[in-house]
Amino acid sequence: MSFIITQAFSEWRECRAAFNDLLYAAYERAEADTNGALLNADGRAQGVDALSLFMGNEIRAHRYASPELLEHWERYPRVTFESFERQWLAGAA
């Protein structure tokens, strides 16, 4: 494998690990802030994993999020990997 590709994969893994740390911290903060009420009735009925709301696309996240979680995201906006990656690259530059 070329040095450039190896370096790129290494940087991507580092960025992804940093995002995962942020993601789990955001999940734990939301769980505490909402007293565990992360899913709405439809999300519970569908068996949605609450953590997936922090990883998936915004439309799905808002479809299954509880009112408490939606309110939480107004105070602490949900961060996507795409936006995190841009910020991470800007900080690394």
What does it look like?
The chain is mainly alpha-helical. It has a domain at 48-93. It is built from 5 helices and no strands. It has helices at 3-33, 41-46, 58-64, 67-75, 81-92. The model has no long low-confidence stretch (mean pLDDT 94).
Listing every helix as H and every strand as E from the N terminus to the C terminus, the arrangement reads: HHHHH
Overall mean confidence score, pLDDT: 94
Q: If helices are DSSP runs of H or I spanning 4 or more residues, what is the number of helices?
A: 5
Major sheet details: none
Task: Describe what is shown at a glance.
The chain contains 5 helices and no strands. The protein has 93 residues and is mainly alpha-helical.
Task: Give structural attributes.
mainly alpha, single chain, 93 residues
Write the layout of secondary structure elements.
Blueprint: H1 3-33, H2 41-46, H3 58-64, H4 67-75, H5 81-92
